[in-house]
Design brief:
This protein is mainly α and 309 residues long. It has one domain. It is 76% helix and 0% strand. The chain is built from 12 helices and no strands. The radius of gyration is 22 Å and the shape is globular. It is a multi-pass membrane protein. This is Drug/metabolite transporter (DMT)-like permease. It is found in: Membrane.
Length: 309
């Protein structure tokens, strides 16, 4: 009996356009999800702030994240930092978590829109590159310098569209939040890069929770108007933002996709503005929209370029 081969020619298994498209989309899915989760934090914070004070909200957020992260560290038997490293973790917590989020939440409380908050914090990659150039002696290339100037020009258009008399304090607070995020990022890169992410982040969240709680008690009395809107925002901030976004970043670094996050970081302002428009009814004037576009193009162009290992 003659045998018949049921295999198709090899060329039939070559990936077609749909297969290549699926591969590209899979490569961008995690970075895009990270941007969505990161951007949603500003909207969630603004939804929660009418029901409690900024420091009380941060106490809830950091406390929940600390409990979950420390529990994961214990269950997975993650290595704990050495005694000399705890001070460095505390400094990072005070800069990246306490100063950054306290300033941002007070800015949102004083009327800063979620989109503008995302725009200012969206300059973080360029501001970090400038800080690394000044503090860590890392080279600042021409692309980054031009992108920084363009990003600042876009921010100037957004800020110029509103009278500073009513919004100056919120802009100053948001700028202080950006400074805390950049300083904390550089300090962590300098002193904490070798630490385990599970225990390191758990310690940072615990230090942050205790710090803001010490101030929230005397100043805000831990006053909370428990509403479903607050509960949902709190769980989202504590679990999705503080833990979920962090976990995605860890996975992308392990997969070598950290560069994709930098290239897509320019989507944070637009994503935050879109969420603010849909969920909060926030609107932007044409001049502010032009500033968003200029900043997005500047940050994207600065992050683009040949990938490095």
């Amino acid at each position: 009996m003659a045998s018949f081969s049921t295999s198709l020619p090899a060329r039939s298994f070559r990936p077609g356009p749909l297969d290549r498209l699926a591969t590209v989309l899979a490569g961008f899915s995690l970075p895009l999800l990270f941007i969505v989760l990161w951007s949603s934090g500003y909207v969630a914070g603004k939804l929660a702030l009418p029901h409690t004070g900024p420091l009380t909200l941060l106490t809830l957020r950091f406390g929940l994240a600390a409990v979950v992260l420390l529990a994961v560290a214990v269950v997975t038997k993650a290595p704990w930092p050495k005694a000399r490293d705890w001070g460095h973790l505390a400094v990072v917590a005070l800069l990246m978590q306490v100063l950054h989020f306290s300033a941002i939440y007070f800015a949102l409380r004083h009327g800063l829109s979620a989109g503008v908050a995302g725009l200012l914090i969206g300059l973080m990659p360029l501001a970090t590159a400038l800080g690394a150039h000044l503090w860590l002696a890392e080279k600042l290339n021409a692309r980054q310098a031009v992108g920084l100037v363009g990003g600042l020009a876009g921010v100037a258009l957004v800020v110029g569209g509103k009278p500073l008399a009513g919004a100056g304090l919120s802009y100053a607070l948001a700028a202080l939040g950006l400074l805390g995020l950049v300083a904390g990022t550089l300090y962590q890169k300098r002193f904490c890069a070798h630490m385990d992410l599970r225990t390191g982040s758990g310690v940072q969240m615990a230090v942050s929770a205790l710090t803001v709680a010490a101030v929230a008690g005397p100043t805000e009395g831990f006053a909370i108007a428990w509403q479903w809107e607050l509960v949902g925002a709190w769980l989202w901030l504590g679990l999705v933002n503080s833990i979920g976004a962090f976990s995605l970043m860890f996975v992308m670094i392990r997969r070598g996709q950290a560069g994709d996050v930098a290239r897509l970081f320019f989507l944070v302002p637009g994503m935050s503005a879109l969420m603010g428009f849909v969920l909060l009814g926030e609107r932007l004037e044409p001049l502010a929209l032009a500033g968003f576009v200029i900043s997005a193009v500047a940050v994207c162009a600065a992050a683009a370029g040949p990938a490095r290992r």
